[in-house]
Structure formats: C-alpha cells, structure tokens
Design brief:
The complex is a heterodimer of chains A (115) and B (115). Chain A is an all-beta fold. Chain A is built from no helices and 12 strands. In chain A, the strands form 3 sheets. In chain A, strands 2, 5, 6, 10, 11 and 12 form a 6-stranded mixed sheet that branches. In chain A, 34% of the residues are buried. Classes of the chains: A mainly beta (115), B mainly beta (115).
Chain lengths: 115, 115
C-alpha cells in the first residue's frame, strides 16, 4: 500500500518570501507520478505541478518548484515570491503509473500568506 | 474554459434520508472520479468510471452508496440511507484518459451535512 504524509498542518509566509512544504511517500514501485494540488477556500482543487518519477530533473512552474528526492521518497514544494492568492490548502498526491489513475492524497498543508 | 460541474453545492439532510449528487465532467473526458473529503483530510477515491463502466469501487460502501454513469457522460452518486459519518465534501473529477500524465480536473464539490 502507498501512503502520503504531509507533516506540516499549517505554514505561514510573508508576501514576497519563500515557503517550502514537505511531503513524503511510501511505495515499492519504481515508476509513478507525484503531484501538488492547491485547494483555495470554497473553490475547486487545481493542479499546481507534477513530477514523473523517471525524470531526474525537478519540475518547475513559474514561482512553484519541487525538490524530488526519489531515494528518500521525498517531494517538497517551494513557493517563491509568495502572493496573497497563494493562500490555500496544498495537497501532495501520488499515483502509480500503471494504475487506473487513482490519486492518493496526503492530509494537506494550510498556507497562510501575511501582508 | 471548460470546467467540471457539480450540484448541489450544499446539501443538508437528516440521518436515514436519501441524497443524490450530480456531476457533469468536461466534454470528451472518458474518465470520471468521485472522491470524498472529510474535513481536515485529503480526498479519498470512492469510485472511478471509464466511460460507463466502473473500474474501481473498492472504497465505496456498497451497502449504502451507489454510483452510475449510464451514458458515459454525467454521473450520479447516491447515499441511502445517509449516516452522520457521511458528512463530508464530495468531489467529482474528470480526465481525458485513465492514467499516465493526464491531469484530473476537479469540480467545486458538494458539501454534505447529515444531522
């Protein structure tokens, strides 16, 4: 069975600063996908960034980047130049590459952005 | 921009009553997912459809929950009878294909409160 662990229930960051969210996962598979999803209050969940396990290069999307450490089974998200609109719940998720697409989510980290 | 539609957005019901949620995926998306998100937790997959066929309902409490996607387009999730522990957000998502890199697009969810 695979499990996804997010150990930080809440993280606070000032505008324009950087915050890093941690995620660890447990799997015996060698090929899989990892995702970070953002869920703003009362709005739908959206994909922030994704990483294929077979790629060594860390994914980046504008101000969002990941640090993927496959051996350590770690997948952290860095938000640079934080903006008020980044305030949301962030979920780390795992999916086996050969599965029917089932996502397994962590418990989430609430990001609070202060002016 | 195409979105996943869900209704109702909020539902309050009494224990032992029947409730139903509706989801309309993005046009052309063959794969449809229903997730349940208990407050303070990440979403958990209840059922997954590929076109009109169920491909994963291993976490669906089949004694009280049912789901259908008769024409392979929109879908209905039903709970009968509702229990206090069913209070949660019910999320629908869709994707173009079942796995690989395909992104899952989420709807706004239905917030269910069982009294």
């Amino acid at each position: 069975a695979q499990t996804v662990t997010q150990s930080q229930p809440e993280m606070s960051v000032q505008e324009a600063e950087t915050v890093t969210l941690s995620c660890t996962y447990d799997t015996s598979e060698s090929d899989y996908y990892l995702f970070w999803y953002k869920q703003p209050p009362s709005r739908q969940m959206i994909l922030v960034i994704r990483q294929e396990a077979y790629k060594q290069q860390n994914a980046t999307e504008n101000r969002f980047s990941v640090n993927f450490q496959k051996a350590a089974k770690s997948f952290s998200l860095k938000i640079s130049d934080s903006q008020l609109g980044d305030a949301a719940m962030y979920f780390c998720a795992y999916r086996r590459s050969d599965s029917w697409g089932k996502l397994q989510f962590g418990a989430g980290t609430q990001v609070v952005v202060t002016p | 921009e195409a979105e996943v539609a869900q209704s109702p957005r909020y539902k309050i019901t009494e224990k032992s009553q029947a409730v139903a949620f509706w989801c309309d995926p993005i046009s052309g998306h063959a794969t449809l997912y229903w997730y349940r998100q208990i407050l303070g937790q990440g979403p958990e997959l209840l059922v997954q459809f590929q076109d009109e066929s169920v491909v994963d309902d291993s976490q669906l409490p089949k004694d009280r929950f049912s789901a259908e996607r008769l024409k392979g387009v929109d879908s209905t999730l039903k709970i009968q009878p509702a229990e206090l522990g069913d209070s949660a957000m019910y999320l629908c998502a869709s994707s173009l294909a079942r796995a690989g890199r395909n992104e899952q697009f989420f709807g706004p969810g239905t917030r269910l409160t069982v009294l």
